[in-house]
Write a structure and sequence with these properties.
- The structure is a single chain.
- By secondary structure, this protein is an alpha+beta fold.
- It has 1 helix and 10 strands; from the N terminus they run αββββββββββ.
- It has a 10-stranded antiparallel barrel.
- The termini are far apart.
């Protein structure tokens, strides 16, 4: 029986390493963000923010976000979540910014995307609460000061 102990210890260690690897893989997978799919809305007296996510295939979620005030669209962007070589990228193209070129943010954990080299925001995060709301937040350093904006959206479909 004592000669089995080293074998059992190696077996247990291998199982732990394998399961940790699977958890890390899942943490950086596109499917960890599947709860975001659908239509979302944030209403304020000043305007409405709309965000819509659809699954294109196993490696791409396509999104659209826009903010309207009355009949004017003040902000419009296309978004994609794309799975590439063991990482998920959040790719945003904002109309009228960055010469209308896409900016990528790397997923650091499910729903959290970072690009420390971007002017603002450097971090974009999504989470959902017990009420079924989507809480989106952009944050980072802007004009030398830490800044953030939070948007609490409700599902519309």
């Amino acid at each position: 029986m004592t000669h089995l102990r080293p074998f059992l210890a190696v077996l247990v260690l291998a199982g732990l390493l394998f399961s940790c690897g699977k958890n890390k893989e899942k943490a950086h997978s596109l499917q960890a963000n599947q709860w975001m799919l659908g239509q979302w809305e944030w209403k304020t007296p000043e305007g409405h923010l709309f965000e819509k996510w659809e699954q294109v295939n196993d490696s791409v979620f396509q999104g659209l976000s826009y903010y309207c005030q009355g009949k004017d669209t003040l902000h419009y962007e296309t978004i994609a979540l794309e799975s590439h070589a063991n990482q998920v990228l959040y790719i945003a193209t904002v109309r009228g910014q960055n010469q209308n070129k896409p900016v990528s943010f790397r997923q650091t954990k499910p729903g959290v995307f970072e690009n420390p080299k971007h002017d603002y925001p450097q971090k974009i995060s999504y989470r959902h609460n017990a009420k079924g709301q989507m809480i989106a937040q952009i944050s980072g350093v802007q004009n030398g000061k830490l800044s953030f904006e939070t948007f609490t959206m409700v599902r519309k479909n």
